[in-house]
Amino acid sequence: MSMATAQPKTLRSDKARTAYTLVELLVVMAALTVLAAVTLPSLRTLLHDQKVTAAARMVKAHFEAAQGRAIASNSPVAVILERSDTTSPNAVSRLSIGQVFPPYEGDVTGAIGALSDSDGDNFLDTLTVVNATAMASLLSINPAPPIFGPWDYLQLYDRQSVYLVESVSPGATAVIKFKNPANYQEGDLQANTRLTTNASFRLFRKPTKSFLQTLVLPRGTCVDLSVSGFGPSGPEFSNAATDCLAMIVFNAQGRIAYWDKAVGVPLVGGPSPATSLLHLLVGRTEQVSLSDPPEVATENDTTTVNANVNDNANSWLTINPFTGAITSAGMQAGNEGSALAVRLPVSRAFATYGITQSEN
After folding, report:
1. How many helices (H) and strands (E) does the chain have?
2. Same domain flag for 117 and 259
3. What confidence score (pLDDT) does residue 10 get?
4. To pair with 33 at 20 to 30 A between CA atoms, which of 95, 188, 313, 319?
5. Residue 7 domain-assigned?
6. Same domain for 176 and 301?
């Protein structure tokens, strides 16, 4: 009888392994570290770009809300651009709505005032209103100070021109001194005009900030006033010397009535009509240039600032002052290393027609 050869028995365990070895853990951690080092910078840039895009949409919606309120209320409404501080006066991270109270047109129907030229420059610059047609308590020293004063606004006849009130002197007659010619308007209300010197008037209080509708942009984003303004390259809102606010006022038709950047004593600036398309740049806070004009980054000069006007991830907000149309478009910075005088008009031209740089 042959004996069967004994086969060794193999022990098998169906129990799953409950842990990794130290070597396996180190390999996984190393792989995750390399993956994070590769992807996180690009992810961070992507998220930051999305914040700028979101900020541009918020600014556009804020302007549209102010415009809609002006049309609905049949009265001027302002968008107030609040500069961050004196160290970064060209960065705006908070925008507010400015309400304008109904105008004062005298205490009786058809109230008029007498126009005169007080300084002999051949331009009418003073309106004298007697208390018989203007309520004494409104334009006199009672209450003190007068309800109307410097930085308020004046309209004469049925003209659309808006004049900055420089002073109001109370008494038996109220003498209102206003700035004429208004900014960017020549030959307005000359003393030898054929118009009568007796004029109907409308006095507007300067826009009052409303705390019910304040927009705060996402952290790290702002409206860059250093390169914001009118026309192809106008820097009207750039101001590196003061932290004054700026405002854009819509009229009851939804168009831009005037813009203002009045500062100082005596008053400098004041209400000015919009003469061309308004361009506001929405970008990053750290890329706001403190110089005037801002530096333009070049490939061979690492000391220059990578200003917002160079960053294609930013956006332009464009407002047509004559039609009230509000549009936004991506940044087109032009040729790398080109001077600001060349780069800015090209960028605004693309924004005007809503053209953005195509992806390669």
Report:
1. 3, 15
2. no
3. 55
4. 313
5. no
6. no
318: CB partners within 8 A, 6+ apart:
277, 278, 279, 280, 326, 327, 328, 329, 348, 351, 352
Quick: pLDDT tens for 84-129: 876 678 889 999 999 888 888 887 888 888 898 888 888 888 888 8
Looking at the structure, do residues 340 and 265 belong to the same domain, yes or no? yes
CATH of residue 319? 3.55.40.10
- Which candidate, 237, 241, 205, 209, places its Cα nearest to that of 224? 237
Q: Which residues pair with 164 in a beta bridge?
A: 153
- Give how many domains the chain has, as a whole number: 2
Task: Give residue-wise pLDDT tens across range 214-249.
Answer: 899 998 899 998 889 899 888 888 875 455 778 899
Nearest residue to 127 (alpha-carbon basis) of 175, 78, 84, 185: 175
**Residue 318 — pLDDT band, cuts 50, 70, 90?**
very high
3-state secondary structure of 237: coil
Residues 85 and 167 in one domain: no
Distance, in Å, from the CA atom of 335 to the CA atom of 139, rounded to the nearest integer, reads: 58
Which one of 153, 180, 204 terminates a domain? 204
Bridge partners, residue 315, by sequence: 282, 330
Q: How far apart are CA 335 and CA 312, in angstroms?
A: 12
pLDDT value, residue 49: 61
pLDDT for res 305: 55
Q: State which amino acid sits at residue 48.
A: H
Q: Which of 161, 187, 204 is the last residue of a domain?
A: 204
Contact partners, residue 303, CB within 8 Å, separation at least 6: none
pLDDT band at residue 40 using 50, 70 and 90 as cut-offs:
low
Average pLDDT over residues 203-214: 83
Q: Tokens standing for 232? A: 């192809």
